[in-house]
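(Deposited chain)
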Amino acid sequence: MRDHHGIERIFSLFTSANCAEALVGDLLQERPERGSVWFWWHVFATTATLWAAALGRSPVRTLLLAILGCVFLAAPVFAGVAAVSIFPALLSTLVTFGLLSFFWWGGAFWTGASVVAVAPARGMAACVTLAAMSEALLCALWVSDVRFDAGSDTSSIFYVTAAAASVPLLVGGAIAHARMAASPQRTLEQS
């Protein structure tokens, strides 16, 4: 089965490579008897459990790292909003979406990589926590419809761009984690 290497990599973001390999092996053993739906549900549940365990090992530090990620992300978010707000009448919807996406998604990618670089041992847990908090805040804003016209193009662009920013945040963190794991030097936090 080809997908087990990717699953091992996802699990190893939150635990050791040996533990990730063992977990995937256990899931693969049960897959023929229980089916694909059971398998993928347990991959998701195991990932969530590993994240919660990583968060639980050091909740204050992980939340502080997530807050640091918010600080890192504030400048690109502000730059994106400024870029589309300076001349709103001159920009088409496609240009607005392109500019906003460039700043927000690029900033999210950089933030994920930076948070993991600052704290390799708990950086991915902080990135997932930041992504979860961002999505929860976005859902709360959408439900309460705080000062946004849900039907307008600009509001839709902001919601879609912000909702999709979690993907580059997590990808940036995962790439930084993989690079740091492959590096022979160990940081003080890992020691």
User: Anything to note?
Assistant: The first helix runs from residue 4 to 12. Confidence is low (pLDDT under 50) at residues 187-191. Helices lie at 4-12, 17-34, 36-57, 59-85, 93-118, 123-144, 153-164, 166-182. The radius of gyration is 19 Å.
